């Protein structure tokens, strides 16, 4: 017991030193820590402590269904044209896609090809040649889930591009996303960026119909009427463009705001596959107009004078510098699979956050002082040693949160206060065991040895059950509950180390130096 292995002593000292080093930035002002390396930063403060903006977004699931059915219609049209099959009544309704093939021989010939279009689609054929494609609830739910996960990733990239510090982006329920932006006091700009789908596509302009004819309802099959993004500025108000997407924005690899002839523009670059498709499109359609469509509005429709084979291009329009920067950011981050609607918006002022920090600090301070006084009054010198371990426990906890990049919230402060009580609880178990063994007549060294060994199992069981509860809170809880679970879990791990290793080392050192005849319990 008294001969503590040297490697354990070195380990305890190293952990204490590293904890002090990584916890130190939490004592420095924010202006100083901003100039420090990224690996040596204080604990990130949550929205409720720092102030900022809270947004609750909802993914438009109806749009996802419509887009999928529309894509199915275009895939059917392309397949039937390729197979040279005569068809009629091709279209989609709320939950299915239909097409009629009257000729029975053609119907049987094309049936395998139609089934290959989407393996998830349920195909039903009536006796009169009507093909009906529907989707099960499981397939629809799977598609919505994928769209929501994709939306979360894109929202995260857009927020990160803005340089927002410590954003929190997480899913809520089946189709909602919570965005917390600490330090952001005016969310309007971010709302405008997150609210844009930013779906960029390139379409050929249909020169067989005028916008006036299309406005009267005479739209050629396979074409659509789209408004101009520059309506009311002396530019064409509407365009008739082909529904077929020549090149999609998902093939972009980079986009940057720049200047051309003194005007803000957006340069873009395709991937190798995208560059080839863009080159083939411009080569095969020289002299025609190519519409650049963003969120179902035509940004511009330049004429293809010659093939563009370099895999890059310029998007021009009546952009301001901010417009060009925003568009470049949206294209880099990628297009949302569906529009996002802001359901709820809250702004937490920095004054309220400062009040929360002050209240949390007072609560933590009162709790710490109460525990320290209690331990000294009940256990005397051994209580002082437990208090040293308690302070080291808080230092290690702050260091772990800093290293892991965990965010401290108001519930997280509650978790720290609870951790202090549970850390002392481990020492109380050990000391009470010492008291029982001493009353039973054991010697000093044997009392200490047996107390630590037998209390270890109880401490381990208590902490493991609490860790399991904290893990469930983190897995299934929302933001504030997760903050509580994080600080509680890290606090339990650090308290086990300090109670079992640090307290034992200090007690052994104290006995070896002071050589008491009995324990002061």
Write structural notes for this entry:
The chain has 521 residues and is of the alpha+beta class. It has three domains: 6-51 and 349-514, Up-down Bundle (Multidrug efflux transporter AcrB transmembrane fold), CATH 1.20.1640.10; 61-140, Alpha-Beta Plaits (2-Layer Sandwich); 195-344, Gyrase A, domain 2 (2-Layer Sandwich). It has 15 helices and 19 strands. The chain has helices spanning 6-23, 30-33, 47-50, 61-82, 104-117, 137-161, 188-194, 211-215, 272-284, 321-333, 350-379, 381-404, 410-439, 444-476, 479-514; strands at 44-45, 52-59, 88-92, 96-100, 122-125, 130-134, 168-172, 176-182, 200-204, 223-227, 238-242, 247-248, 252-260, 263-270, 290-294, 297-300, 312-315, 340-348, 407-408. The protein has a four-stranded antiparallel β-sheet. A four-stranded antiparallel β-sheet has the order 3-4-6-5, with helices on one face. A hairpin with a 4-residue loop joins β5 and β6.
Task: List descriptors.
single chain; 521 residues; alpha+beta; Alpha-Beta Plaits; Gyrase A, domain 2; 3 domains; 4-stranded antiparallel β-sheet; elongated
The number of E-state strands comes to: 19
Strand order of the largest sheet: 7-8-2-18
The percent of residues in helical segments reads 40-55%
- Identify low-pLDDT runs: none
Shape: elongated
Q: How many domains make up the coordinates?
A: 3
Give the overall average pLDDT. 85
Can you tell me the CATH superfamily of the largest domain? Multidrug efflux transporter AcrB transmembrane domain
Number of helices: 15
Main pleated-sheet profile: 4 strands, antiparallel
CATH class value of the largest domain: Mainly Alpha
How far apart the termini lie comes to: 19 Å
- SSE-based structural type: alpha+beta
Strand content: 15-25%
């Amino acid at each position: 017991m008294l001969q503590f292995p040297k490697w354990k002593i070195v380990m305890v000292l190293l952990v204490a030193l590293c904890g002090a080093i990584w916890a130190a930035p939490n004592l420095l002002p924010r202006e100083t820590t901003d100039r420090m390396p990224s690996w040596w930063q204080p604990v990130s403060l949550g929205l409720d402590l720092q102030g900022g903006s809270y947004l609750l977004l909802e993914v438009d699931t109806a749009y996802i269904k419509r887009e999928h059915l529309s894509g199915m219609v275009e895939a059917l049209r392309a397949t039937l044209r390729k197979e040279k099959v005569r068809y009629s009544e091709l279209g989609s309704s709320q939950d299915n896609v239909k097409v009629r093939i009257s000729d029975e021989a053609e119907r049987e010939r094309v049936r395998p090809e139609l089934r290959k279009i989407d393996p998830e689609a349920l195909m039903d054929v009536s006796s009169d040649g009507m093909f009906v494609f529907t989707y099960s609830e499981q397939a629809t739910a799977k598609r919505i889930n994928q769209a929501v996960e994709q939306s979360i990733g894109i929202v995260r990239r857009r927020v990160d591009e803005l340089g927002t510090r410590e954003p929190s982006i997480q899913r809520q329920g089946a189709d909602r996303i919570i965005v917390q932006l600490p330090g952001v006091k005016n969310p309007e700009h971010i709302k405008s960026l997150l609210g844009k789908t930013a779906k960029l596509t390139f379409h050929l302009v249909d020169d067989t119909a005028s916008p006036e004819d299309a406005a009267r309802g005479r739209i050629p099959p396979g074409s659509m009427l789209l408004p101009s993004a520059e309506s009311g500025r002396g530019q064409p108000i509407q365009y008739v463009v082909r529904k077929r997407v020549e090149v999609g924005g998902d093939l972009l690899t980079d986009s940057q705001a720049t200047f051309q002839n003194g005007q803000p523009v957006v340069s873009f670059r395709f991937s190798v596959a995208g560059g080839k498709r863009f080159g083939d499109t411009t080569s095969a359609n020289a002299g025609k107009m190519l519409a650049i469509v963003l969120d179902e509005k035509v940004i511009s429709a330049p004429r293809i004078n010659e093939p563009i084979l370099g895999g890059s291009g310029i998007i021009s329009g009546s952009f301001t510098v901010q417009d060009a920067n925003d568009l470049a950011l949206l294209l880099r981050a990628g297009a949302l699979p569906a529009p996002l609607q802001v359901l709820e918006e809250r702004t937490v002022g920095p004054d309220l956050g400062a009040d929360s920090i002050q209240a949390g600090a007072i609560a933590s301070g009162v709790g710490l002082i109460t525990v320290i006084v209690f331990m000294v009054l009940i256990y005397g010198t051994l209580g002082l040693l437990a208090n040293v371990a308690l302070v080291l426990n808080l230092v290690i906890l702050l260091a772990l949160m800093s290293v892991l990049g965990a965010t401290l919230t108001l519930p997280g402060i509650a978790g720290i206060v609870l951790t202090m009580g549970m850390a002392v609880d481990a020492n109380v178990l050990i000391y009470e065991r010492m008291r029982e063994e001493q009353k039973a007549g054991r010697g000093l060294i044997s009392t200490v040895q047996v107390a630590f060994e037998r209390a270890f199992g109880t401490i381990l069981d208590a902490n493991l059950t609490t860790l399991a509860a904290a893990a469930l809170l983190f897995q299934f809880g929302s933001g504030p509950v997760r903050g509580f679970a994080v600080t509680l879990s890290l606090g339990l791990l650090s308290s086990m180390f300090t109670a079992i290793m640090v307290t034992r080392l200090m007690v052994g050192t104290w006995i070896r130096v002071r050589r008491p005849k009995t324990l002061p319990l």
